[in-house]
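pasting for ref
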Amino acid sequence: MKKKRKQTLTRGFVHRAIWISTLLMLALTAGGLILYGQRETILSRRAARAAQRGDYEKAVASLSAMEQPPKEQLLAYRYALGEQTLRLGDASGALVIFSQLGEYADSRTQVLACRYALAEQTLLLGDIEGAGEMFYALSGYLDARDRYDQCRYELAEQTAASDPETAFHRFLALGAYADARQRAEALAMELTGETDPTFAVNRMLGLTEEQVDSMKRLQNLRMQLPQGKLAVGFFHTVGLKGDGTVLATGRNEEGQCEVSGWTNVQAVACGAYHTVALLKDGTLMATGRNSEGQCEVSQWTNVQAVACGDYTTLALLSDGTLRTAGYQPYTELSGWKDMVSLSAGSYGAVGIAADGRVYASHPSLRSKDMTGAVAVACSTGYAVALMEDGTVLHTAASLDWTDVLAVSACSTGTLAIDAQGHILCHWFRSRDALDFSQVREAVALSAGGTHTAVLLCDGSVLVQGENGEGQCETKTWNLN
């Protein structure tokens, strides 16, 4: 009897234990569900409190743990973390953070600031060459190009006593920077024994009198070429007549060919679907697609030259600085100064400064050997520079061209005019090649991705390429 009663009590205890355990489990589950339902709110509040304390690392971690973190708030906290990291001197860590923020706020500018800070830190560590390379990669940002030249100048000075020949070439490559030209001439006279600095430099470079005369001849021929007379867009062609009026043919769905009323024009340029004119009074006119604000240039003044990317308008002002409108913010151009020449293509820009330095908006468009170029051109991913001796430097190919007077670049190839008025062509793909082998007496050209225009000395314009929109219909044109 006692045994049976004991078994009954045991069973009762077990049942109660099971019920209690079940209730506890249900309570814990319910509590967990309640807490899980509040998880997003808890994490959000935790992030806000961390941000108030200035602990942006924890704030970012809390928001990142949420299933659906508020995007703008997360970006703001990450940006603040990047600023905080940079202030603490960790430029490398800040660079990683800002690089991940893409186009948020001024993250692109902050990326450049971090890279500039890293270059300065490298210089402080005594690595002049390494710092110079880093400043060069930032060419155009603030005074990075000057800092690059400062590094090069210091390296030249360091070798002047031990290796004067190397120092000569280093000083000479600096162009008109500081007194680099004078230092190069002094070393050249010392090494050659010549008393005339120009002759001494030419001897150091291995130039003969005939080669020097050839450079002078090419310079005179280049000065005779008309400027700003031709421009091509994706599907339209524009030409400037001698009386300051403008002709256009091709696609006009965005109004890019509505130029018949333009007068007093001294140069024309084309983007993908817009056309810009530089007037003789230094102002601009634009027509065509304005999706990115690329045509909002009517208030600009003191413009010396104009160029267009696909969806961007750029102007060289009389004070040697640049102004831009359109798709690309071109943060990299903020440090361009004392510019004398400007060119643009697709999504890039290049220019020449008064001291002979070449500036470029993107690393793929830069080459240290371009210093001293007399003309530059670019397209997406590459640039070309015409040198004083008539050769052409190309950042993406090797060209053996000589006696060149003008160059033009597009997405399908690079073209040039030589001293005989022939057209030289380098095509990236054979299927894009156009035949200009019969052209003689060319004086200007504008290369485009779908078609290319050439101005002949008699004023006629030859256009080859796709003609689906009538962009090649220039047979009646005379631009003289």
